[in-house]
Design brief:
This protein is of the alpha/beta class. It has 27 helices and 37 strands. In the N-terminal section; belongs to the acetate CoA ligase alpha subunit family.
């Protein structure tokens, strides 16, 4: 039994009505009907327009309510001011989904935004799903569905295309046709007032016709849903994405075009890396990457080898690789020995491999084979310039033969035009990427290696709290609540450091003096030398206002500094509120590096963590590395490595390398703060001084704001942390301890082995077939979840070695699109049945769904599975017959009183 996706009425309709169908040539209503007919729609097609008897031979009805068949999908092509009445009519007629092609809504101003809101409210009142408005429509070539007003159609294929721009869709389709690129689904979202990226992505995840996905994004409305679906899609299918609005001018243009908010581009980039997606920047890169990745390319690393018959082109490729941070392969001794036997004495003996201008077919072939077999090579760029004895076409044919058996990407660059044209055609026919110049060839490899790296980031599912010593969350909350109760949003330095201390981050202890005498007493208690800084909620950069004095070694200097600080600040910032002067020990670290660790709120993705060079250079150097929380050790290491300051943290000049564990510790703790303290809007530790002995936060500033209570404690985050707090144990009468915990991506092997051992009957009742093993895509789908819209619990027992785990049961739920109900499934190992495990698992699952705020839990059961029917009735499920399928029963459990 194949489960029907809730978006099937939109994307797999059996009946379609075109409202606003017209006989007028080139009108939108005319083009849509013509496109549907030309595509050979397999379902029933109806036209609606009171002015016509028929449109292109399709009988026309006066209104949607007059159509003698309930429509799955209505395509609306009437002026904006008439659409609200049309949607009301669709609701009364029982239409399940609508596409609004018309413009004139939120993108046109306040009046249009009000109309759009009323249209969406009407659609929701009738439970109609809405695509658009201001969109091109959808195509499903396999079904003969072309519900668009485009003048170009899609060829049947395996790529899913989702775009916020209809114009870009037509451009991509126009390029695709002569290049034999086909599509499973094409969706133009328009304003995304109801259906957005997230839901279309979720459909494509489960759509067997879609093997890879291209996306064009202007802005995001629901970051959590977007990240959830994007991560889910990227786990099982390659995803390429172009995001525009990278600069303020572009962001303003997006708001006027689609009404979307684009947010900070560096944050969006970090989100895409974390989602395992390839980000591209122009259409040329998109087409090149699509050709490569959607054929047979599967990247494995980022070390590039370059093979060329000309030194100059090789250097051009090296320069571009350096620009993009692509390391050149360092050949092993074995590879060098092979190359020395193949190549003449004058070869470069390094990467790039300059085979010299007289390189023939055999030299190219043997060199490429030797390089591909090398252990330190992840991909090869083969370059050719048409020199005197070179045969570009014959060399291309040899490269194709070698590439057929290669397990690493091969990219080619045949420079020139007339003499190399046939060689390029040879590569194109074989599906091998080929370019005219070195730079785009290296860029393609860069994108493919980024995919490899991002897939590793995607697999990370850190918990909100690490394995480190637990923080004092309650203490931190009290500090924040006290400030908010006093109507303050800026914490002073002592309060800010109190938060850090609550999360075990080492701090330079700070006290505040309110007179020169008090300053001297406190300085003597702390121990000279000291640092003195103005304590004011109005001043962010204390040094700029004259509010900092360093390395004060005597009490007389402390007394003088106190007066000077107050005078300078009052002169430079006369309106600033002054609490006093903060005093702390002078941190003397001869080998210390001054770093900055920060938190800020992105308008789209919520809190993000930043890292880079600190001290006085933090404003001059705004190029900070960015990551989305939660973080774990792998993600922290990646964040540090991706920063420009990373090169200064190792052995540098006369300084030893810093204590990386101490630095990673601070970043992990800041991630914990972000997860557990949703009140934080900004945090800056500057400087964080790190040397070979550890790290200390010298200065800190935190701002907070009130947040509304939420059932989801992580509602402020774009990525839901791993819910380690839901782990529990259950002891059997024989003493066996069963661990019940949320599933992780690394549980893939456990899940495969568990399913392999199930009996045919258990497999049939759970999966509706008796497959021997789970397909890889299904394994990823079952084990790599986002914990927000779904939850899965494993029941495990210790293996024979006492260390490994053995899975003995699993249960899961997935939240339905209404956000109020969920579908569940449960299966227990055959030798663990009748031991109460299924009931225990269901108890944990039901309680989790209840705490999530869900109202109902639904189940679909085979009518002949009497044991399961009796089991769920015992849990309180109410059973009913499925009106559309007599072989199944439907069950509903009310979760809330």
């Amino acid at each position: 039994m194949k489960e029907k996706h809730y978006l099937s009425p939109l994307l797999e309709p059996k009946s379609v009505g075109v409202i606003g169908a017209s006989e007028r040539e080139n009108s939108i209503g005319h083009v849509v009907v013509r496109n549907m007919l030309d595509a050979g729609f397999r379902g029933r097609l109806f036209a609606v327009n009171p002015k016509h008897e028929s449109v292109l031979g399709v009988p026309c009805h006066k209104s949607v309510e007059d159509v003698p068949h309930r429509l799955d999908l209505a395509v609306i092509a009437v002026p904006a001011e008439k659409i609200l009445a049309v949607v009301e009519g669709c609701g009364r007629a029982g239409v399940k989904a609508i596409i609004i092609l018309s413009a004139g809504f939120s993108e046109s101003g306040p009046r249009g935004a009000t109309l759009e809101r009323h249209v969406v409210e009407a659609a929701r009142r009738y439970r109609i799903r809405l695509l658009g408005p201001n969109c091109l429509g959808i195509m499903r070539p396999e079904l003969g569905l072309n519900a668009t007003f485009a003048h170009v159609s899609a060829t049947k294929g395996t790529i899913g295309l989702i775009s916020q721009s209809g114009a870009l869709v037509t451009s991509i389709l126009d390029w695709a046709k002569p290049n034999n690129i086909g599509f499973s689904t094409v969706v133009s979202l328009g304003s995304s007032s109801d259906i957005d990226f997230g839901e279309i992505l979720e459909f494509m995840i489960s759509d067997p016709r879609t093997e890879s996905i291209i996306m064009y994004v202007e802005g995001i409305r629901d970051a959590r849903r977007f990240m959830s679906a994007l991560r889910g899609a990227a786990r099982v299918k390659p995803v390429l994405l172009i995001k525009v609005g990278r600069h303020p001018q572009g962001a303003r243009a997006i708001r006027s075009h689609s009404g979307s908010v684009s947010g900070d581009d560096t944050v969006f980039d970090a989100a895409l890396r974390r989602a395992g997606v390839i980000r591209l920047y122009n259409m040329g890169q998109l087409f090149a990457a699509a050709n490569a990745l959607f054929s047979h390319f599967r990247p494995r690393g980022n070390r590039l080898a370059i093979v060329t018959n000309g030194g100059g082109p090789g250097v051009m490729a090296v320069d571009r690789a350096a620009d993009l941070g692509i390391p050149l392969s360092e050949f092993s001794e074995g590879t060098m020995e092979k190359l020395n036997t193949i190549l003449p004495n004058g070869w470069s003996r390094a990467n790039p491999i300059d085979m010299l201008g007289d390189a023939d077919v055999e030299r190219y072939k043997k060199t490429l084979q030797a390089v591909l077999e090398g252990p330190n090579v992840d991909g090869v760029l083969v370059m050719l310039t048409p020199q005197a004895i070179t045969d570009p076409t014959a060399v291309a044919e040899a490269i194709v033969e070698v590439e057929k058996t290669a397990d690493k990407p091969v990219v080619t660059c045949w420079m020139g035009e007339e003499l190399v044209r046939e060689g390029r055609k040879t590569f194109e026919a074989a599906g091998i990427p080929t370019f005219r110049t070195p730079e785009p060839a290296v860029e393609l490899f860069s994108h493919l290696s980024a995919y490899y790296r991002n897939q590793k980031l995607l697999m990370q599912t850190p918990a909100s709290l690490s394995h480190l010593k637990p923080p004092s969350i309650e203490s931190a909350r009290l500090v924040i609540e006290t400030a908010l109760a006093e109507r303050r949003k800026v914490l002073n330095e002592m309060e800010s450091k109190a938060l850090l201390a609550a999360f075990r981050i080492p701090i330079a202890q700070t006290v505040v003096a309110r007179s020169a005498t008090e300053a001297m007493v406190l300085a003597e208690e702390i121990g000279l030398p000291v640092v003195m800084k103005i304590d004011s909620p109005s001043i962010i950069h204390k040094a700029d206002s004259g509010g900092v004095r360093l390395n004060l070694g005597s009490l007389a200097a402390v007394r003088t500094a106190y007066q000077e600080i107050l005078e300078d600040v009052r002169r430079n910032k006369p309106d600033a509120a002054i609490n006093g002067v903060a005093i702390e020990p002078m941190i003397m670290k001869r080998n210390g590096r001054e770093l900055v660790v920060g938190v800020r709120r992105d308008p789209v993705f919520g809190p993000v963590i930043t890292f880079g060079e600190g001290g006085n250079r933090v404003e001059a150097n705004k190029d900070l590395a960015v990551a989305l929380p939660p973080l774990n050790n792998y993600l922290v290491h990646d964040l540090i490595k991706s920063s420009r300051v990373a090169s200064l943290l190792g052995e540098f000049r006369t300084m030893p390398p810093v204590d990386m564990e101490a630095l990673e510790f601070v970043l992990l703790r800041v991630s914990e703060m972000v997860c557990e303290l949703p009140w934080i809007t900004t945090l800056e530790i500057n400087p964080l001084i790190v040397d070979e002995h550890g790290a200390v936060a010298v200065d800190a500033r935190v701002t907070v704001e009130n947040v509304s209570p939420s059932v989801d404690r992580y509602a402020h985050m774009a990525i839901h942390p791993y819910p380690s707090q839901l782990t529990s144990t259950w002891t059997q009468p024989d003493g066996t301890i069963v661990t019940i915990r949320p599933i992780k991506p690394e549980d893939a092997e456990l899940e495969v082995e568990f399913v392999r051992k199930l009996s045919s009957e258990s497999k049939y009742y759970r999966f509706m077939n008796t497959m021997r093993e789970l397909p890889p895509a299904m394994v990823a789908r079952l084990t790599q979840i986002d914990y927000d819209r779904e939850m899965a619990f494993l029941a495990t027992i210790p293996g024979e070695d006492g260390v490994t785990e053995v899975e003995v049961g699993v249960c899961r739920y997935a939240v339905n699109p209404d956000g109020e109900s969920c579908e569940f499934a449960v299966v227990v190992a055959d030798d663990w049945q009748h031991r109460g495990l299924a009931r225990k698992l269901m108890g944990v699952l039901i309680e989790t769904a209840r705490n999530k705020g869900l109202l109902y839990m639904n189940g679909v059961f085979l009518a002949n599975n009497e044991r399961m029917l009796k089991f769920v009735q015992g849990l309180g499920f109410v059973l009913s017959s499925d009106p559309e399928d007599s072989t199944v029963k439907l069950g509903v459990l009310a979760l809330q009183d």
